[in-house]
UniProtKB/TrEMBL annotation:
Residues 37-199 form the Outer membrane protein beta-barrel domain. Pfam families: OMP_b-brl. Keywords: Signal. Transmembrane segments: none annotated. This is Outer membrane protein beta-barrel domain-containing protein. The lineage of its organism: Bacteria, Pseudomonadati, Bacteroidota, Bacteroidia, Bacteroidales. SUPFAM superfamilies: OMPA-like (SSF56925).
Amino acid sequence: MRKLLIISLILFGLSPLVKGQMLNLNYQMSVPLGKMNNYAGKMSFRGMDLEYHYFLNEKFSVGGMIGWNTFYKDKGKVTGDFLFKGSKDIHTITGYQYRYINTVPIMVMGRYWLTDQNTMFRPYLGLGLGTSWTELKTDLGQFTAKDARWQFAFAPEIGTIIPVNDQFAFNIGAKYTYGTKSGRVDAMQNFTISIGIVFMGN
């Protein structure tokens, strides 16, 4: 997360030099859905993403994003079955269990802007396509079980930017992200609210 923040600050420093383009840094709050909710069913307040958008014209932009979200759930004292690497035996262990999900989505993005750049609000509809690195980790006492996979992912979104001047704006958006099943990692889905700052080159 720290590296992503440093990269964001460097890019934002260069943004006034980049015409017809936009850089966006968002703080994110996410709700797990489906099997992600079953594994770690607790709202996450630990997430961010960095977006780049290039305007083809006033109505369409293309770009990309990279993000990070983590989900955490304290299951309390439970009994669970563990299969350790290199062994075919299943071990039943009782202890305090903590579950984590880390996701790193990397996507190309397209947006349709509903108004031109001279309005107080610039609402948009968008779609991201790409991949998401997903890690599931369960800690039970001194034992840890972990699975990690790259998943194909897509993310429709809706939101608006609120321009302050020609080079600065705020962003508010909502996104649904779905990652397909990959190996032992089930399909992952979540709903995210984003609040961020935007630097624009004109």
